[in-house]
């Protein structure tokens, strides 16, 4: 078995055989309705906590009820020099697969064979330290990614030139603009000299011009015969770079083939999006699904930041309820809470009769800059209790179309208007 | 083109250490140590002055409280230098141990995003904290000149004691680091624990007290805590408080080795789960 699979592996860069990975999610907490019971539970909580924490690393009892399989029975192979895209919805197992391939976490079952040196770009700039200079960070980051010092030496000038930070290379990175920092981080990653490259969504850095440069760089990488496995939510990128695509769904490989076909199938699935299983929040509300539309048509996770879009919450009211608060925390990808909004701003706090509801929130265009955002569903009864405080979330990717490489730092797009007068006359 | 093959399979039970891989990543280790040293005193007024100020201030406080008020016996040398000579290895040990123990929980971002030998994390402070140690050590000679104390020939054993001190910090650091990923209690227990460990070691009190109170058996039992031998050894070599406590150093070395080796195995066993539970 071993001999034969290694034998046919001559032209293969990556062979994945029946790989699976399960996680223990920790059992639901018991609810206590009397003070005495809660006090008892509180006293016993160290014992319960210990049991729960121990389970986090347990690897034996596959069929226990708190086990979820993030990935199951996935097999495929990638030829040397091939560029393969992996697509699928959030939670489909894409990142777990890359984490296994890059040895961050071991699989629970199955086997992976990698022929050649591997480097992974799961996140650019990991390990960057704000107090260190650009030069020091290039070396640190390069060695973290698996380069030897001599390799960084050789690629150094090219990295700095690619990132366009020559003048600031001996300045602490904390004085860099966010754009400069990302450019430098990507430049280090892009110059890794490994035969197999695992890429997770890192092409979504910087402004439009730099993204274009990164894509061109990636195309260059693929032309010199390196094997690339690419995870992306950006279907254009997948179609432009990849020769083949794999579609993951709920941890299983459901389709593979030409990118256009696979992307088409993914999008048609995504449009019918049920972003979550129906879930009951207390006795009163059942959350059914979240959907997103832009320009009146269903949209995937990718949206244009220049135009308005809508997030629809589909839910059932099971019992008459007053003072219902239902809305979103809008959170930037780096965790900064931007604002919270409730549909009571329109609906008020009066009683809602049982039945099917849909609350639609529209966000105006040109408000948030490109990047990814979380819409966390918050549901509660005013001054009484929370029914859901943000653990149901929707990840959205806003893509920019602005054609400039000027940096606009901040959590909002530049809003407001300018007028420019030259010697007293308005020029713009 | 030489091509290597990597096979990834499920990980269960005890693991061996992949020395070849550690060697491949030695540049990373160097840069991590380098980063630790460079970053530590960035944007401070005193900079490396802190490496001197911390032990000196502790010495002043201890001298007032334990030397003057409580009249703790200091083996016939001035209490100030008696406590300072102990504080130098002690502060190294406690800062290296805490940094090592928290190295994984403070770097979960790297842990879940990139693969590299995890052992580099807890081992980094063991080396980077030597800089502070060296700086504060210089003050020992200033104090010795001030109190007119001549060092003894036993100073040649200091490198041995320093190695033992590093081994102890590394071994305990490995244990706590591996535990801390799953049990964040370590993070909260650490400040408290180092304080207990300080009073358990002869930092503010004299090691001769052990023999007085508990006899020879007591000495050996206390010696199981390797920092006892290290601190008493420092005092013997620099302040001539007595002969080199070889019995305690021997027992301490054995226990430090046991802690280190078991720590390595425990760390490797837990390693597979780090990215999942971090």
Explain what this protein looks like in three dimensions.
The complex is a heterodimer of chains A (428) and B (278). By secondary structure, chain A is of the alpha+beta class. Helix content of chain A is 27%, strand content 34%. Chain A contains ten helices and 21 strands. Chain A has a six-stranded mixed sheet, with helices on both faces. The two termini of chain B are 38 Å apart. In chain B, 41% of the residues are buried. Chain B has helices spanning 19-24, 26-40, 49-69, 79-101, 108-113, 120-128, 130-146, 158-182, 185-200, 208-223, 226-239, 246-277, and one strand at 5-8. Chain B has 278 residues and is an all-alpha fold. Chains A and B meet through helix 2, helix 3, strand 4 and helix 4 of A and strand 1, helix 2, helix 5 and helix 12 of B. Strand 4 of chain A pairs antiparallel with strand 1 (5-8) of chain B.
In short:
The complex is a heterodimer of chains A (428) and B (278). With 428 residues, chain A is of the alpha+beta class. Chain A contains 10 helices and 21 strands.
Question: Terminal Cα separation of chain A, in Å?
Answer: 73 Å
- Sum up the overall morphology of chain B in one term: globular
Count of individual beta strands of chain A = 21
Helix content range of chain A? 25-40%
Average pLDDT taken over every residue of chain A: 81
How would you write the strand order of the largest sheet of chain A?
A: 5-6-7-3-8-9
**Element order, helices and strands of chain B?**
EHHHHHHHHHHHH
Low-confidence stretches of chain B: none
Brief descriptors of the model:
heterodimer; A: 428 residues; alpha+beta; 10 helices; 21 strands; B: 278 residues; mainly alpha
List the helices and strands and how they pair.
The complex is a heterodimer of chains A (428) and B (278).
Chain A: H1 2-8, E1 12-24, H2 35-56, E2 67-79, E3 83-87, H3 94-101, E4 109-115, E5 118-121, H4 134-144, H5 149-163, H6 178-190, E6 196-200, H7 208-223, E7 227-231, H8 235-241, E8 244-249, E9 252-257, H9 259-271, E10 279-281, E11 285-294, E12 297-298, E13 302-304, E14 309-317, E15 324-332, E16 337-342, H10 344-347, E17 355-363, E18 371-381, E19 385-399, E20 421-422, E21 425-426
Parallel strand pairs in A: 3-7, 3-8, 5-6, 6-7, 13-19
Antiparallel strand pairs in A: 1-2, 1-4, 8-9, 10-11, 11-12, 11-14, 14-17, 15-16, 15-18, 18-19, 20-21
Helix pairs in contact in A: 4-5, 4-6, 5-6
Chain B: E1 5-8, H1 19-24, H2 26-40, H3 49-69, H4 79-101, H5 108-113, H6 120-128, H7 130-146, H8 158-182, H9 185-200, H10 208-223, H11 226-239, H12 246-277
Helix pairs in contact in B: 2-6, 3-4, 3-7, 4-6, 4-7, 4-8, 4-9, 4-11, 6-8, 8-11, 8-12, 10-12, 11-12
């Amino acid at each position: 078995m071993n001999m034969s699979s290694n034998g046919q592996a001559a032209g293969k860069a990556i062979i994945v055989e029946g790989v699976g990975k399960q996680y223990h999610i920790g059992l639901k907490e018991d609810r206590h309705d009397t003070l005495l019971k809660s006090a008892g539970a509180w006293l016993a909580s160290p014992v319960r906590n210990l049991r729960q924490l121990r389970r986090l690393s347990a690897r034996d009892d596959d069929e226990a009820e708190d086990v979820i399989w993030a990935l199951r029975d996935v097999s495929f192979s990638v030829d040397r020099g091939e560029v393969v895209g992996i697509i699928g919805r959030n939670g489909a197992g894409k990142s777990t697969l890359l984490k296994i391939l890059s040895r961050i976490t071991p699989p629970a079952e199955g086997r992976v064979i990698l022929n050649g040196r591997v480097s992974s770009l799961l996140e650019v700039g990991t390990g960057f330290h704000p107090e260190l200079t650009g030069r020091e960070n290039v070396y640190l980051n390069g060695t973290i990614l698996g380069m030897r010092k001599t390799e960084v030496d050789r690629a150094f000038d090219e990295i700095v030139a690619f990132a366009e930070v020559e003048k600031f290379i001996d300045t602490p990175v904390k004085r860099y603009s966010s754009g400069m920092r990302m450019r430098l981080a990507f430049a280090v990653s892009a110059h890794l000299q490994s035969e197999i490259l695992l890429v997770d969504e890192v092409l979504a850095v910087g402004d439009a011009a730099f993204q274009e440069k990164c894509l061109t760089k990636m195309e260059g990488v693929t032309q010199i015969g390196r094997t690339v496995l690419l995870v992306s939510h950006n279907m254009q990128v997948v179609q432009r770079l990849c020769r083949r695509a794999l579609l993951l769904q709920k941890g299983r490989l459901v389709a593979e083939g030409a990118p256009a076909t696979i992307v088409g199938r993914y999008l048609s699935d995504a449009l019918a999006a049920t972003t979550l299983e129906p879930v009951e929040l207390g006795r009163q509300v059942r959350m059914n699904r979240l959907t997103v539309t832009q320009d009146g048509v269903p949209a995937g996770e990718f949206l244009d930041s220049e135009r308005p879009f809508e997030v629809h919450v589909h839910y059932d009211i099971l019992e008459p309820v007053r003072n219902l608060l239902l809305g979103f925390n809008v959170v930037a990808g780096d965790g900064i809470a931007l604002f919270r909004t409730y549909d009571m701003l329109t609906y008020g706090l009066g009683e809602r009769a049982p039945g099917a509801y849909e609350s639609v929130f529209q966000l105006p265009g040109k408000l948030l800059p490109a990047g990814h955002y979380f819409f966390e569903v918050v549901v509660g009864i005013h001054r009484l209790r929370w029914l859901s405080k943000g653990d149901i979330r929707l990840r959205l990717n806003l893509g920019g179309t602005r054609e400039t490489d000027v940096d606009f730092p901040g959590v909002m797009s530049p809003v407001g208007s300018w007028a420019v007068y030259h010697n007293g006359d308005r020029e713009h | 083109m030489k091509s290597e093959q990597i096979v990834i399979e499920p990980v269960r039970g005890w693991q061996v250490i992949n020395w070849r891989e550690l060697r491949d990543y030695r540049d990373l280790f160097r840069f991590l140590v380098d980063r630790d040293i460079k970053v530590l005193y960035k944007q401070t007024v005193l900079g490396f002055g802190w490496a001197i100020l911390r032990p000196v201030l502790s010495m002043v406080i201890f001298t007032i409280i334990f030397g003057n008020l409580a009249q703790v016996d200091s083996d016939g040398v001035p209490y100030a230098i008696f406590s300072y000579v102990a504080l130098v290895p002690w502060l190294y040990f406690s800062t290296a141990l805490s940094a090592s123990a928290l190295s994984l929980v403070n770097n979960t971002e790297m842990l879940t995003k990139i693969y590299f030998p995890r052992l580099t994390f807890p081992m980094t402070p063991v080396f980077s904290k030597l800089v502070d140690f060296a700086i504060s050590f210089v003050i020992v000679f200033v104090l010795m000149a001030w109190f007119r104390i001549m060092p003894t020939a036993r100073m040649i054993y200091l490198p041995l004691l320093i190695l033992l001190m590093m081994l102890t910090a590394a071994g305990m650091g490995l244990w706590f680091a591996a535990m801390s990923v799953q049990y964040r209690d370590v993070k909260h227990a650490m400040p408290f624990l180092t304080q207990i460990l300080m009073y358990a070691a002869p930092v503010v009190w004299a090691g001769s007290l052990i023999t007085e109170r508990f006899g020879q058996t007591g000495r050996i039992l206390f010696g199981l805590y390797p920092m006892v031998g290290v601190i008493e050894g420092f005092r013997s070599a620099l302040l001539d408080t007595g002969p080199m406590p070889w019995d305690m150093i021997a027992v301490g070395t054995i226990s430090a080795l046991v802690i280190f080796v078991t720590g390595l195995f425990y760390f490797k066993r837990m390693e597979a789960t780090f990215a999942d539970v971090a």
